[in-house]
Amino acid sequence: MKHGSCGAYNQCTLRLAKFRRWSQIVFFALFVLLLVRTEYRGSFRAAVAEIRLNYPVSLFLQADPLVALTNALAGFSLYPGLLWCLLILIPTFFLGRFFCGWICPLGTLNHFVSSWKSENKRGRRLIESNRYKRWHRWKYFVLLAALAAALAGSGLAGWVDPIPLLVRSLALAVLPALQWSVDGLLELFYRTDAWPLVLTAEGLGFLFHHTLLSFRSVHFNQAFLLGLILLVILALNLRVTRLWCRALCPLGALLGLASRWAILGLEKRRESCGECNRCLLHCQGGDDPIPGARWRKTECHLCFNCLADCPEAGLRFRFLPVLGDAVERPDLGRRHAIASAAVGLAAVPLLRAAPGLTAGGERRIRPPGALAEEQFLARCIRCGQCMKVCPNNALHPALAEAGLEGLWTPVLVPRIGYCETSCVLCSQVCPTGAIWEVTAHEKGWSGSSGKTPKPIRIGTAFIDRGRCLPWAMATECIVCEEWCPTSPKAIYLRPAEAPGPDGKPVAVRQPWVNPELCVGCGACEYACPVQDRPAIYVTSVGESRSRANQILLEQRRRPQT
C-alpha cells in the first residue's frame, strides 16, 4: 500500500474509532437517563387518570437477547415487549458483536476503567494480557448453565446478565449512595452562615434533584453487597482489560455464538506487518488481531482499535473477507459443555430444596400482580426496576425471604414502606411479565367507582396482642385503623375496658382485622408506633396469586384477630 493511501486509511479508521466512542457515550447516557426516569414524581392523590411513566424505561432490558431467550425457555412463551431484542440479535448475525463494543453500558464502564493506567498492564504484560486465553471460554459455560437453569424453570440468568446486573447495581446501590452523599454535603452547606455556600447548595440541590437524583432519599437492603459486586467487576479491568466481558459475560457469549455467521470480518495482511504488536495495545476482546495468529471471530467487540493503532494499515475489516485460518466458533469441548449444562440443571432442584418456594415464606410478600411463585421465579430477572420505581421505597431485594433461588427478587418490606393504593408502576416497568401489568381499577384496593373485580391481595395483617398498646398496656392507639386504605376498612375498632396499672378499668378501643377485606398493603405495619417489632404485621398468607397459601376458616367466618 502506498504511503498516501496508508495515511488516508489511518485517518478513516481513527474517525471510525472516534465514532465508536461517541456511540458508547450516547447509549450510556441514554441508559442512565432511562434509569433515572424510572420514577414517578407526581402526586397520587392529585392524579385523575391512570398513572404512567413517560419514558420507555425498560428499553435496554427488553432489547437484551439473553433476557428474551431465558424468558422463552423458562416460561415457554415470549413476553411481547422482549421482541425488541431482535434489534440487537439480527444485526449481530451480519456484523458480529457490535453490541459489546458500541452499545452495552456495562461494557462501556469496563472499557473506560480499562483505559486507566495500571502496574499490571504495562509493556509486554499489557500485550500479553490482550492475547486470547483459554479461560475466555468460561463465559460460554456460564451461558450454558444459565440456559439450562432457564429450561428447568428458573430465571437465574438475571444474576449474571450484564444489563439486569448494572440496572440492579446502579438503581439499588450507586444512585442511593450518591443521593445520601449529595444531600449530606448540601446539609453541611446549609448549616453554615456563609450565604455563598447556601446559594451554592440551593443551585446544586435543584440541579441534582432534577437530573440524577430522586426527589426523595431511599435506601435498599443489601445495597452494600450489590455495590461491592459492581466495584469488583470494574476493578478487575485494572488487572485484565474487560475481564468480565472476556471471561464471564453470558450475554457476550450468546452474541459471540450468533456472530459466528457474521459476514463482516478482519482481514490480515501479513506482508504489511512490521511486528510492532501495536494492534494488541488497546484490543478490547482479546481476539488476537495480530497477523500470524488465528483471529477469534466470536471474541471481537468491533472496537476497531487495532485498525487505528496499526501504522502499516495491515489490518482491514471487510464484508465477506478472506479469513484464512480464523477461528469462527469457540472450542468448548463436549465434556465441558455437558458439565456446564448439568450444573445449571442441577442448581434448580438444589436451590428449591431449601425452604422458600413452598407455601409459607411468611415475609415473602410479592408486589401486586406477581405471578404464582414458581412462574414468578422463572420470569423474574432480578433487575430491580420494580424496586426503583416504587414510590414508597417498599420493595427491596430478597435475601432469605424467598429461599436461595429467590435471591434479589422483589419483596415488600412494610416496616420501610407500604404499597400505595392506586400505584401499579411496578407492573408497568417489569420487562418480563413476572409482575403482570394490572390497572388501578383491577387492583381495586380503594373502592373506586363502578363494578370492580375482587381486589388483588398480597397478604394479610395480624395483630400481636402482647405488643399492641390497647390490648397489652391499656393505652389508646388507633393509628393502624387510621392508616388502613381499604374501603370499607379492614381494620376496625371495638370499645373495651382494660385493667390499668392501678387495677381500675380503662376505656380503650381495640383494633381487629377483617381478613375478608385486608389486602396486605402493609400501611398498618408501616405506621405502627411500636418500635422495633411492630404490634401489627403482614404476612403473605391469603395472597391472591396462590391457592395453597390461604387462611383456613370455617364456613361462618368471624373477624380475624
Structure commentary:
This protein is mainly α and 561 residues long. It folds into four domains: 3-156 and 236-319, no CATH class; 166-232; 373-443, 2-Layer Sandwich (Alpha-Beta Plaits); 460-539, Alpha-Beta Plaits (2-Layer Sandwich), CATH 3.30.70. 40% of the residues lie in helices and 7% in strands. The chain is built from 22 helices and eight strands. The chain has helices at residues 3-36, 59-62, 65-75, 86-95, 98-102, 105-114, 123-129, 138-151, 162-191, 195-209, 223-235, 243-247, 250-258, 305-309, 334-352, 373-379, 385-389, 425-429, 440-443, 469-472, 479-483, 523-527, and strands spanning 264-268, 315-319, 395-397, 410-412, 460-463, 491-499, 505-513, 536-539. The strands form four sheets. The protein has a two-stranded antiparallel ribbon. Strands 3-4 form a two-stranded antiparallel sheet. It has a two-stranded antiparallel ribbon with strand order 5-8. A hairpin with a 5-residue loop joins strand 6 (491-499) and strand 7 (505-513). The longest helix is centred in the N-terminal third of the chain and has 34 residues, at 3-36. The protein is elongated, with a radius of gyration of 28 Å. The N and C termini lie far apart (88 Å). The model is unreliable at 554-561 (pLDDT under 50).
